[in-house]
From TrEMBL:
The keyword Membrane applies. InterPro entries: YgaP-like_TM. This is DUF2892 domain-containing protein. It comes from the Bacteria. The chain crosses the membrane at residues 7-25, 31-55. Keywords: Membrane, Transmembrane, Transmembrane helix. Residues 2-56 form the Inner membrane protein YgaP-like transmembrane domain.
Length: 66
């Protein structure tokens, strides 16, 4: 799996987790979803992604975006 796909998969899992927490635990977990969305937007414009840095250190092969 490439680094790009790992980051996208991680982002998808985190969004689903945050929606689950918002619905079943507490409505204020919606801010977790907002944080994930803002992080994805800033990553699209700046190219800086903390998750990509972590996955790169874990040995995922580079992709075209990161």
């Amino acid at each position: 799996m490439s680094l790009d796909r790992a980051v996208l998969a991680f982002a998808g899992v985190m969004v689903l987790l945050s929606v689950f927490l918002t619905v079943y635990v507490h409505p204020l977990f919606v801010w977790f979803t907002v944080f994930i969305g803002v992080n994805m937007l800033q990553s699209a414009f700046t190219g800086f992604c903390p998750a990509a840095m972590i996955f790169k250190k874990l040995g995922f092969r580079p992709g075209t975006a990161f």
